[in-house]
Amino acid sequence: MAKANVGIPQGTRDFGPEVVRKRTYIFDTIKNVFELYGFQPLETPAMENLETLMGKYGEEGDKLIFKILNNGLDNPAKEKQAREEFEKILQGKNTKGITERALKYDLTIPFARYVAMNHGQLTFPFKRYQIQPVWRADRPQKGRYREFYQCDADVIGSNSLLNEVELADIYATVFKQLKIPVEIKINNRKILMALAELSAGTDKMMDITVAIDKLDKVGLEKVKDELVQRGLNPGAVSIVENYLSISGSNEEKISKAKELLGSSAIGKNGIDELETILNYQLTIHLPIAIGTPLTIDLTLARGLNYYTGVIFEVKSKDVQIGSIGGGGRYDDLTGLFGVPNIPGVGISFGVDRIYDVMEELDVFPEDVYTGTSVLFFNLGAEEGKIAFEVAQQLRAKNIPCEIYHEAGKFDKQFKYAEKKKIPFVIILGEEEIKKNTCKIKNISTGEQKEIPVSELSEFSFI
Question: What pLDDT digit, counting tens, does each position of 351-371 carry?
Fold first, then answer.
């Protein structure tokens, strides 16, 4: 029998017990903060109808959607039709003869679809959080995977900028608890709309934002080259260049943006919204006001079609890995599904990148590694039965414990406890059973004490 080629698809990963515990710590931290702000949990299917997803993420995003082949394509009677349909696929077209479904690219569009389907039963504003995997046919690299988890929080059914203030505070609170120093950047798509309006026309909005979104990766000159390739004349490119060169403090950026774009009504509206959020930060006693101030970044574009107002991006200050969070306002996302005029705003946490940052910074708490609190040594058949009985008493008190699987030497059982980072071992040998006591040893300190079995359930295994 030929040896199996064992492996997993590129851009995916297995997670062992220690990694799962660390990831769960991140999930729980984020979820607890979401709940603190009144968000409710939601889940949507792994796959959506292809028409639900296509055309929602811009030209670049649509290319990264994982499409799912229809069932029955191996039916000989349909072979000719399948070949014709595949030819359409090779030409860059979508055809229901080959694929009608796709893995979800993010959590926002499925959420909008959910709201459109259920808006008659929801209480608005509807605040939901969602923690699920998504899939992108991207080129795998450090911090970029084809299957990864997103943690989203969205408020839908409200125009209030208080939502943006609270979402920024959620970012600051979570990353403070995770001990990751971050920079929270904000901009406004209305400002970018004004830039398009005053340079090349609003029909060039997506061309400009898609190019600007690559600024950090390719640099200004290549962004200018791409703008030319996308049809902007030299005068329009010059205006975009002047815009991208704006720097200084938040106040200085606001002032320069007003000088350049103040003649545009939508641009003025976008700048006013940024000032409103910054004024909240400065005048209200919030964690963001004392720990993680917001930074205006006028080059921030978030190259997705559906953003219409304030946009966010979060980056680690100490680890070069790209953004670890992002989001923004989308004033008519449900309109894509026939239910118009329901505004919304949301943020997302990139858990896989957050995990990599925490590993590099070594900021996971020590107790995150611990699953089992107590290991009962196995000293023989009779001793093992009594150890099992006592272990059941501890489990009834919600103290995680296990019994070594077979009778063995002390050294072997100690090593097992050390490798699994089990902090305490309990010894119930012949002498202890006679006295109805047990020995408890703290692995890390080496301290050992003997106590009555009757007092064991009250012992503090910390």
Answer: 989 999 999 999 999 888 778
Q: Cα separation of 88 and 126, whole Å? A: 41
Nearest one of 325, 331, 342, 337 to 307, comparing CA atoms: 331
436: left (phi over 0), alpha (psi -120 to 50) or beta: left
Task: Give 361's contacts (C-beta < 8 A, 6+ positions apart).
Answer: 179, 180, 318, 319
Tokens 């390739």: give the residue.
Answer: 229
What is the torsion angle, in degrees rounded to the nearest 10, for the CA atoms of residue 140, residue 138, residue 349 and residue 302?
A: 130
Q: How many Å is the Cα radius of gyration of the chain?
A: 28
Residue found by looking up tokens 């893995």 in the block: 103
The C-alpha atoms of residue 335 and residue 158 are separated, in whole angstroms, by 15
Nearest of 359, 390, 355 to residue 374 by alpha carbon: 390
Secondary structure (3-state) at 382? helix
pLDDT digits over 9-52, tens only? 999 999 999 999 999 999 999 999 999 999 999 999 999 999 99
Place of tokens 């670890």: 324
Which amino acid makes up residue 195? L
Phi, psi of 41 (to 5 degrees): -75, 150
Are 412 and 362 a contacting pair, CB within 8 Å?
no
pTM: 0.84
Q: Which residue has the tokens 């963001």?
A: 288
